[in-house]
Amino acid sequence: TVNTNLTGMMNTCATVLPYMDRQQMGKGGIIVNVTSVIGLDPSPVFCAYSASKFGVIGFTRSLSDPLYYNQNGVAVIAICCGPTKLFVDQKLTAFLSYGQCFADRLRTAPCQSTAICAKNIVKAIECSRNG
């Protein structure tokens, strides 16, 4: 979970930044890190997932600091998506077994379609500023 959600995102940012950095070969731009509302508040059921998403938010906030943005012209934002139908339809496994009853109840929770989520991501990109 941490390798995919956090380390993979950090490696991707490190790889693309030189191509975007105005002081190197780039023209600036925007990096969009897709994360989750579970990264905003602790999740006692999905502990590792929550920790990885907290990490994405912390990394994004750090990389969007004016210290970098004023130099490289690359805006960085995090999109904190809520639950989607695709997510809740998967087999959700709680970090500890006694949280599984809560994970199973998520199947009936209100959620958005992936199409609506994607439309909102595009809107956030169009309206966004650094940070």
Automatic annotation (TrEMBL):
What domain of life?
A: Eukaryota
Question: Which InterPro entries does this UniProt record tie to the protein?
Answer: ADH-rel, NAD(P)-bd_dom_sf, Sc_DH/Rdtase_CS, SDR_fam
Keyword flag Iron: no
GO cellular component terms listed in the entry, alphabetical order: cytoplasm
Q: Can the keyword Oxidoreductase be found in this entry's annotation?
A: yes
Any one GO MF annotation of this record: oxidoreductase activity
Alphabetically ordered keywords of this record = Oxidoreductase
Task: Identify its protein family.
Answer: Belongs to the short-chain dehydrogenases/reductases (SDR) family.
| Name the UniProt record assigns to this protein | Alcohol dehydrogenase
